Please model this.
Amino acid sequence: MDRMTLGTRNVSIEFPGVKALTDVNFEVSTGEIRALVGANGAGKSTLMKVLAGANPDYTGEVYLNGESVDLRTTLAAKRLGIQIVYQEVDMALVPTLSVAENVMLNDLVMNSRGNPMLNWPRLRAQAKEVLERLNIKVNVRTLVQDLTLAQKQMVLIARAIANECNFLILDEPTAPLSDTETAELFRLVKHLQETENIAIIFISHRINEIIQICEKYTVMRNGEIVDTSPITESTSTREIVEKMLGRSFEENFPKEQAVIGENAFEVKSLEGADGKVNGVSFHVRRGEIVGIAGLVGAGKSELCKTIFGAYEKTGGSVFLNGNELKISNPSHAVKNRIALVPEERRKEGVLVNETVSFNLSAAALGKFCNGAFINRAKTDANARQYVDGLGISTPSIKQAVKNLSGGNQQKVAVGKWMAADCDVYIFDEPTKGVDVGAKQDIFRLINEITKRGSSVIYASCENAELLSITDRIYVLYDGRIMAELVTAETNEDEIMHYAVGSTTKYA
Model:
């Protein structure tokens, strides 16, 4: 098969107040799996959107096989076989359509031409064939709104593969996936490379995955490409991270010990979330960080949202400082000084059309009001504090959150609750899509929360993070607590032992 190349020459793009790309020269060829890495706001997603036709206002040149092409629309990119799968899955799917309709959506839009007489059995069969190639066991008639986050991600990948595809861009594809699902994705990626003359551009903050699956990596920093190197047996996580950050990096985050007091928050026999939370009981002491571990689909997000009142509680009780709480919706939780940083930041965590300043004050507006009026000086001062503390990359606190990178949006989602001074903070996958340097910023702020005497619940699929930041860990499987572990006395193997549903004691 003839090799195809896709690349840029001196591509630049500028948004209000910030130059996102500066004279970027990038090239990838079919048959290779290329990693694109960089800190949040480095320009990775911006560059990929240029290649996918989603950023038309670029200067410079995009070329295919050495010839200049005009990629000012997504349709133009798709016609050249350039497909992109974004990490914000809910923004790219139609929730009220079936799996089959979402997988074959491009075909429906481009080929139906308003003809209602579509061959629905054929469409479903085509979707089923693609899903089987990905080993995704989902009924093609199921509505997308009824899928898990991991299933939605896989549907998006299936959609890309269902169309002519020479260059496949995967933006944080494994973020919502379990280890098993990630392994299956890697199998597919290797298969595509070997059999279908396809190039895969793999954007990820999980450096260990990049080393495992990719052949080369390209590093971006501050809108520029600073390095492209092959991945060899000697390539290390530290080497890549230090190129990303432009400085030395200490991988292990030292947990700071807060004073742990008496029991402050307790859940007893909690039921809810349409059966996905089953008799859960646990407690958190003042100044303590308690981890909720479990594989994708274990019920971690459902547990967090049931406590917060976003999902219906059908049984059990929640106590704060010995007093039972009646929480039937999120506003009740907030009034009782309970905060939730949700996993799906654009959908639930931030107000994307509002400014950074407004978002960072939104959870505690009462603190920044003079009577009925918001004191802008106070909200701006609060915003500057957390922009600096979290390392939020933004040209201004007046910037709309929708114009920030995904990782910086996550920092805003975390930061908005810091000013609220809550008693209980619930973090649901807070470092998803966040670079390694930003993780340290988030961990540092969580430590500051516990020093104030607040209690922290930290739900994550990243066992290494749980071992780094928590005091105790509850392991969840199928909506049930399988084990309570003391962090200092456990390891990843023991966590996984219970995370897969083992009922025997780990030896």
